[in-house]
Amino acid sequence: MNEPPTYPEFSKHYPLLVKSLMKRPLYLYPDDVALVYRHEAGKYSRFTWRQWHARTCQLAHGLKALGVVAGDRVATMALNHHWHMEAIYATICIGAVSHPINVRLSLDHMAHTITHAEDKIIFFDRDTLPLVEALFDRIKRHVRAFVYMSDAAALPATRVTPLYAYEALVADQPQSFDWPDLNEDTHAVLYYTTGTTGLPKGALYTHRQIYLHSLHVSLFLHSAPHRPTDPPRPNQMITVLNIPLFHIHAWGSPFFSVLMCARILLPGRFTAEGFCELVQTEKANATMFVPTMLAMILEYQEIDRWDLSSLTMINVGGGALPLGLKRKAEKRFPYMRVGSGYGMTETYDGVISAHIKREMVDWPQEQIDQVMVKTGLPYVPAIDARVVDEAGHEVPRDDETIGQIVLRGHWIMEQYFKDPQRTAEAWRDGWFHTGDAAKVGPDGYITIVDRITDVIRCGSEMVPTVLLENLTCNADFVLEAMCVGVPDEKWGEIPMALVKLMPGAKKTEEDVLDFLRQEGVDKGKITKWMLPVYVALVDEIPKTSVGKYNKREVRKQLDRFLGMAKRVRM
Amino acid sequence: MNEPPTYPEFSKHYPLLVKSLMKRPLYLYPDDVALVYRHEAGKYSRFTWRQWHARTCQLAHGLKALGVVAGDRVATMALNHHWHMEAIYATICIGAVSHPINVRLSLDHMAHTITHAEDKIIFFDRDTLPLVEALFDRIKRHVRAFVYMSDAAALPATRVTPLYAYEALVADQPQSFDWPDLNEDTHAVLYYTTGTTGLPKGALYTHRQIYLHSLHVSLFLHSAPHRPTDPPRPNQMITVLNIPLFHIHAWGSPFFSVLMCARILLPGRFTAEGFCELVQTEKANATMFVPTMLAMILEYQEIDRWDLSSLTMINVGGGALPLGLKRKAEKRFPYMRVGSGYGMTETYDGVISAHIKREMVDWPQEQIDQVMVKTGLPYVPAIDARVVDEAGHEVPRDDETIGQIVLRGHWIMEQYFKDPQRTAEAWRDGWFHTGDAAKVGPDGYITIVDRITDVIRCGSEMVPTVLLENLTCNADFVLEAMCVGVPDEKWGEIPMALVKLMPGAKKTEEDVLDFLRQEGVDKGKITKWMLPVYVALVDEIPKTSVGKYNKREVRKQLDRFLGMAKRVRM
Prior knowledge:
By secondary structure, chain A is an alpha/beta fold. Among the domains of chain A are: 49-205, Rossmann fold; 456-567, ANL, C-terminal domain (GMP Synthetase, Chain A, domain 3, 2-Layer Sandwich), CATH 3.30.300.30. Helix content of chain A is 32%, strand content 25%. The first copy, chain A, is built from 19 helices and 29 strands. In chain A, the strands form seven sheets. Chain A has a seven-stranded mixed beta sheet with strand order 2-1-11-10-12-13-14, with helices on both faces. In chain A, strands 4-3-5-6-7 form a five-stranded parallel beta sheet. Chain A starts with 8 loop residues before the first helix and ends with a strand. Chains A and B meet through helix 1, helix 2, helix 8, strand 17 and strand 21 of A and helix 1, helix 2, helix 8, strand 17 and strand 21 of B.
C-alpha cells in the first residue's frame, strides 16, 4: 500500500490524498498566519502555514516514535485548538486513522468507541482530563499511550499512564516529513454515531472521500449565486471554527479551510465572550454555528461591547432554529444565512443543503425564505440523491409523496467499522439507505420530513412529524415542539404534540391547535388530518447528547406524556 | 469494464465520469438555454440543457446503431457547433474515445492521425467536406462510416461513402440513454500533437482526468483573488467558445462550462463580425482568444458598430502577445486579462498559469504586469511541478538557474497511444518530462524560458531564447521576433534574432540591439552576453500549423537567414 507509485499509476491515478490539501497554502502563502488559538482572554498562539506544517511533521515523527504504524487508530479527546488540528493531520497523513472521540457521549458509549476502535494512542487536553480519568480503568488495557496536549512544561498529576507531554514528544523531531504516497482508498477518519438506537457505530472514511469533499464543497461555496444585497466575498476566509472537531470533523471545515488557504481561528471551549473577542481581534469574516451556540451569543449580556461587523458569512446548521431566535439573530447579524441542510455521521456534511438558484437572486426576502426552509438541493453531481418508495422506485416530484432518501456519491461513508452486517443493511443495491423520509418538488428541492421510523402512520396516510414541528415552532409563543404518534385502535396512530412555550407566554393547548389550523391547514401547508389530536404543554422536551429531540425517550414514557396532554380535537 | 458498480465499489469509489458533468445543469437548470449556435448572420439555433441532453442521448443510440462499441475511436473534423459538442459527449459517455482531428495539420499528418487512431466513424461538416474528400482515398479502407453534421435535409454531392446525415441518424432515436457507470480510468479523449518534430503523437486522457480538471479549474477560477478594480463576477458565465474544439478540447471549456452551468455560444468558423454579433445578441460576458483572434477583432473596421460592453472576462492565451496589440486591446477591452500560461497537448490546459496572490490585489497595475508576464503558478495541489537539473534535483528558487520542468498531477496525459516507448521516455521516475526549460522564483512563480532543445548554449551559459524574444517584442516598433543559436567556434553557439518590424516602422538592426541594451541589460533583465550577435530584419518568420515559431525550419535554412543578417556586435 505504501509503495511509491510511478508510471503508469501516477499518469492516470495521481492519488487524492489529505496531504495534498496542505500543499496549496504551503506553496502560495507559507508565511501567512494559518492558525490562531485563543487559550484564554488575551492569550493567543499564532502559527504560519510553514510553522504549523513543521509542527505537524514533528508530530508525525513523534507518532512513529510511539510505535504508530499505517492503519492504527489514533484518538483525540480535545477542544478545538492547534494541537488537535496537528494531531488529526499528522495521524491521517502518515496513513493511520484519526478517531476524534465525541466527548458528549455517555461514559459507557465513549468506552465502547475506544475499545471498538482499538485506539492505540489517545490525545487529550486539560479540559478532557477528568473524562479520561473517569474512563481510564475501562480502557487502560487497550490504549498503549496517552499524550497530553498543553504548552505547560509539566504533566498534570494523574494516574493516567503511560503519559507523554505533547511538546516534549515533538521538541527534538525533524521539521519535515516525507509524507507517503498512500493509496487514495486508505482509511483516514473514523467517527462514531451518537447511538440513539443502540451502541454507537463507527463510520469510516477514506482519503479520496475527504479530498473530493473539500474540493466540491469549496467550489459550490465559491460559485453559489450572489444576491445584489449580499456582501462582497472576501479574498481570504478568516473563520472561527466553533463546531467541535469530533462532530463529523466540524462539517469538513478543517479540510476545506486548508485547501482554500483560509485563516482558522480556534476558540478552545466555545463561549460567547471568547467568540466575540476572537472575532474582534482577528477580524473574522466567517463562522458556523449550531443553534445552541447562536443562542448563547445572543443571550450574552455584553455583546454590544464587541465589534462583530467583520462577520459577513455566518452559517447556522445542525438543528432547527426557533423563529424567535432567528429573528433576533437576523437583527444582530444581517448577513447571517440560516441554512437548513442535511447530513449524518454516515454521509459527512454537505449532502443536501438549502441554497438558491440563479433565477432567484432578485427575489424578495420573503420568497427566498420559502425556499430556504426546504432542506435543499443535493450536491449534484458529487452526490446522487433519490427519494424512493419501498420498491426502490423514485417517487413523483410533487412535493407531497413521501419516500426514503437514498444516496450515493463521493463522500458517503465506506463502511461501518467491523460491522459488515449493518454495512450491508445500509449499503444495498449500490445505494446508502439513510432511513430518513423525504419528498421532492418539481424544481428538485428536497425536504426531509422525518426519520422513516418516526413518521406517524395515520390511516393510510403518513404524517411527517418534522413538518408539523417546524410549523408549530413558527408560532411566536412557541420555543420548541416535538410530535410523536400515539397508538389508536381506529387510525393506527394519531399525532401528539409536546410544546414548550416561550418564557412568559400565556397560551393554551387550543391556541396551538388554532395556530396550526390558521397557518397550516388554511394556508395549504398541511391537511386537516395532520393536526395533532393531543397537545401537551411541557417544561422540557427530552433531548439526546447532541441536542436532538429524543423521540425514543418520549415513546418509552408515552403514558406519562399522555397524562399531561389535553385532547384538543376528535 | 461496464459492469454496474455497487457496494462496496460505490461506497468509496463513486466514479469520476464525464457523464456526471451533465448532471448539474440538468438537475438545477434543465430549461435554461445551454447552447447557442450561430449558423450565419442572424441565424441561430438554441437548445436548453434538456434539449441538448435529449439530442446527445439520441446520438448515443445512433452511434450504437452504427456499430460503435466501448473503446472505439470516433473522430470529428468540424467547426465549433452544437453537433460537435453532442458528438463529443455522446462518444465519451457511451465509453468510446473522442478524437477531435486537428484540421490545421497537413493532409499527410491528418491521414496519419486517422489511420493511427483507427477511427471507426468520422463526423464532419460543410466546412471540412473538402478536407475529407482530399483525404478519402487514404482513409477509406479504415473508416467504417462518415456522418455529415448539418440541418440540411439532403446530403451533399460527394464521393465520400458510406455517408449518413446526422439529423436522420438521430431523428427516431429515444431521447434518453442509460449512460453506463464506466470505470473512471476508461479512455475518453485522444488528441494528437502538432508533430513539429516528427509524426503527430496521440495523447490519451481518461474520464477521471477530465472530471478532475473541470472541478479544479472551476474552483481556481471562482476563488481567484479579486481586485477592487475587477468587475463583479456574474452569476452565470455566458461564454463564446472560440478556441477550436480540436485544440486540447478548447482548453477544457466544453467540460468545465457544462459543470458550471454556463451558457455556451458557438461561433462556427471564427470571424470578427460573427463574434461581435454573438456577443451583442447574447450579452456574452466571457471568452477566450488566441492572439490571432484578438488581432482579427481589433483590425475589424466595423467594430464600433457593436455593443461589446457585456464582455468582462476575456482570457488570452496560447501564444505571446505583441505589446502593440496588447495596448490596443486593453483600450478596447478594459477587463481583458492577458494570461500567460503553460500547457501542451500532453498536459491539458491549466498546468501553470499567471495569476496574482491575495496580497497583490491592491498593487498598482505596473507591478501586477510584472507578475503576469511570468508563466505563473502551478495549479497546486492538482498539479505538482518541479524544475530539475539533469540529475533530477530541484534547482534553487533564485529566478535564474534553468532546469527542465517535470510534472505529475491529475491531468497529465496517461500515455501516447500505441507508443509505449515514447510514453516511457516522457514518463520516467513518476514524472512527466516536458522538454521545456524553466526557472523558479523565491515566491514560487515559474517562468518557462524555452524548449530545452532551443536553449542557446553560449560558452558555459544558457541563453533562454523565449526571454530574448519577449523582450524584443516589447519594443513598440517590433511586431514579431525569434531567436536561434548560430554555431560558433569559440562559444559553441551565439544568438541571432530574426525581427519583423511593425508596418511602417523605420528602424535598423542597431536599433534592435540598442533597445535590448537599454530595456534588457541596463534594467537587469538579461546579461550582456545574452544580446544577439546577429540581427536579421525579415518580412516573415516561419511558423508551424498552429502559429508557433518554427525553429526547426529556421535551423534548416540557417545559411539563408544568416545571409540576411547583420553582425551588430563582436
